[in-house]
Amino acid sequence: MKDFLNVILYQPLEGVTLFLYHLFGDNFGIAIIVLTVLIRLILVPLSLPALKSSQKMQELQGELSRLKAKHKDNKAKLQEEQLKLYREHGINPLGGCLPILLQIPILLILWRVLTGLLAQDSINSHFLWLNLSQPDPYYILPALAGISQFIQSKMMMPAKPKKEDQKALEKTSNPGKKEDDLGNSLTQAMQKQNLYFMPILWVVMLLRLPSGLGLYMVVSILFGVVQQFFLNAGRKEQLKTQSSKVKA
Hints:
Belongs to the OXA1/ALB3/YidC family. GO terms for molecular function: membrane insertase activity. One of its GO terms (cellular component) is plasma membrane. This is Membrane insertase YidC/Oxa/ALB C-terminal domain-containing protein. InterPro entries: YidC/ALB3/OXA1/COX18 (IPR001708), YidC/Oxa/ALB_C (IPR028055), YidC_ALB_C (IPR047196). By secondary structure, this protein is mostly helical. It has one domain. The protein has nine helices and two strands; from the N terminus they run H-H-H-H-H-E-E-H-H-H-H. It has helices at about 1-25, 30-60, 60-70, 75-90, 95-120, 140-155, 165-170, 180-205, 210-245; strands at about 125, 130. Strands 1-2 form a two-stranded antiparallel ribbon. Helix 3 crosses helix 8. The longest helix has about 35 residues, at about 210-245. The protein is elongated. The termini are far apart.
């Protein structure tokens, strides 16, 4: 397995990083930034469908809560109805796992690549105020990572519909129940926990990690913010069109 990862990830990442380093005038910081963007672009075909599925699942929390209340004594029927609901809306419940599973080995291998290259005397490890082989002395990267992650997590939370749109959509849905409210409250509580947990986690981790890896994470999160912005804009336009059809 180790040899497989070396051939598939370590050697290509090391080669591309060195190529970008020399391409941009022996500037390791720029090399990391460009490498990060390239990695995220390669993962877009996998991450985008997963983000769309996650977005749709958040919008279906009310319907999922109704199913749980209706079939609370029949787990087999509940699973069957949930899968049916996912199929109707084109959702893959496990789709969000693949991009995460791919990024974990990439992050670990990249850590090895950066620490290995930055340990070489021939590599210029200085970029702006940073020594990329050492943690950020001014904690700017950890702060940027935390703030960017908070923004991204906030953007991933479902927006509350306008009152007029909600009334129009309620015409085609069943009246709400106490079970629905409880389910939605639990979902919102979990979303709020994630909203603060991930930013704090990245801040704590990057306080001790080499700033080269911190630079990678900041650029990666910022890429995710931009990607989520366009995804939300497209989904907002789609929901607006659907709402107009309901009103008509």
